[in-house]
Write a structure and sequence with these properties.
Strand content: 35-45%
Helix content: under 10%
Structural class: mainly beta
Low-confidence stretches: 1-14, 26-32
Shape: globular
Oligomer: single chain
Number of helices: 0
């Protein structure tokens, strides 16, 4: 696969993108993106998880208030609080993070930071009310200094729960430790047990990651993940059971046969990726520091040249999901998270269509 670069250089670092890895570039941000964007919900506080329900309603988690809010499909202006996760402790990047649900929407899962660890709770859902949270999985390491908590969760087509975890800042070596839950993608049952068939006989599904905040399945059932780099390369990875994605031995590609190369990389200033979804033949990745929405065309397990959209128009972008009928995207900003510059109406959920 051809490697592309936005900036010519005389010498490439050891972890320069290989010929199997695409490189995202800032692109010409003056050209039209071909996307139509409109506010759906405004005046949210640090929205993080976004769960699209079959009827078009939304559940959204706020990292810093630790509230889960319902956005009714027929009255998105009537946002109401349906739960507060009292055990969640917001600080820095910690707090109430990802949301997921079973296929029949009878159970909603939430990932959050407690005083001891990161953990996952299950709550019953009847379409209007969330039940009491029950811890089904815990022991995920807290981020050092309340950073790099991971937090993205998704129920896969196999009815198993996939979990992206963080690397705790000061202890990156746990990424290569099969016995640690940090810096991993986990796969567990809906009851919180390690999934049968996992490659190491534990909850660990893949290792060598660094703060996975994006997980998405495409129409063929492939699992993709976006993760933060340290200082050079953010990554998009195609996940293989038992795959080792290199951190902290390698950032980006070029680690040799021992590690799985990313399928695409970005300079950290152009992405700092969080949410990820699959729609209309492409993966869509929300960028925080990069303040843009990346479109990455997908052909089976190959990816095309990443295309930037909305660069600098909305500020920091946290989460992107496909809407209920598949006609477009839902996108959240993250300008009230302590690192952005909020505008009137921030934070918001936006509709995105072609």
């Amino acid at each position: 696969m051809l490697a592309l670069s936005a900036t010519a250089c005389s010498e490439e670092p050891d972890n320069a993108p290989s010929d199997r890895t695409r490189t995202g570039s800032p692109g010409d941000t003056s050209r039209p993106t071909g996307l139509q964007v409109a506010d759906l919900v405004t005046d949210l506080t640090s929205p993080w998880g976004l769960l699209v329900l079959d009827d078009g309603s939304l559940l959204v988690s706020e990292r810093d208030t630790t509230q889960i809010k319902l956005v009714p499909a027929d009255r998105p202006d009537r946002v109401e609080v349906v739960a507060t996760i009292d055990e969640a402790l917001p600080s820095g990047e910690a707090g109430l993070l990802g949301l997921a649900a079973t296929a029949d929407e009878s159970t909603v899962f939430a990932y959050y930071t407690s005083a001891q660890d990161n953990r996952i709770v299950a709550m019953s859902w009847d379409g209007a009310t969330l039940g009491e949270p029950e811890v089904i999985f815990d022991g995920i390491p807290n981020g050092d200094g309340n950073r790099h908590e991971g937090g993205r969760i998704v129920v896969g087509p196999d009815d198993l729960l996939y979990v992206g975890t963080g690397e705790t800042g000061s202890t990156p070596d746990i990424a290569q430790d099969e016995d640690s839950l940090g810096d991993k993608i986990l796969r567990i049952t809906l009851d919180g047990e390690p999934s049968p068939g996992n490659p190491f006989g534990t909850a660990v599904y893949s290792l060598g990651h660094r703060n996975v905040e994006g997980l998405a399945f495409d129409d063929a059932g492939n699992l993709w993940a976006s993760e933060f780099g340290d200082s050079e390369w953010d990554e998009l990875n195609l996940i293989e059971p038992g795959g080792n994605y290199g951190w902290p031995e390698v950032e980006g590609s070029g680690g040799g046969d021992e590690y799985v190369d990313p399928v695409a990389v970005w300079a950290t200033a152009d992405a700092s990726p969080s949410g990820l979804t699959y729609w209309d033949g492409s993966l869509w990745m929300a960028g925080l520091r990069g303040e843009r929405l990346w479109e990455i065309p997908v052909d089976a397990t190959d990816v095309g040249i990443p295309v930037p959209h909305l660069t600098g128009e909305l500020g920091r972008l946290r989460t992107v999901e496909t809407n209920a009928d598949g006609s477009g995207l839902l996108l959240t900003t993250s300008n009230t998270d302590g690192r952005g510059e909020p505008l009137d109406g921030d934070d918001r959920i936006l509709t995105v269509t072609r």
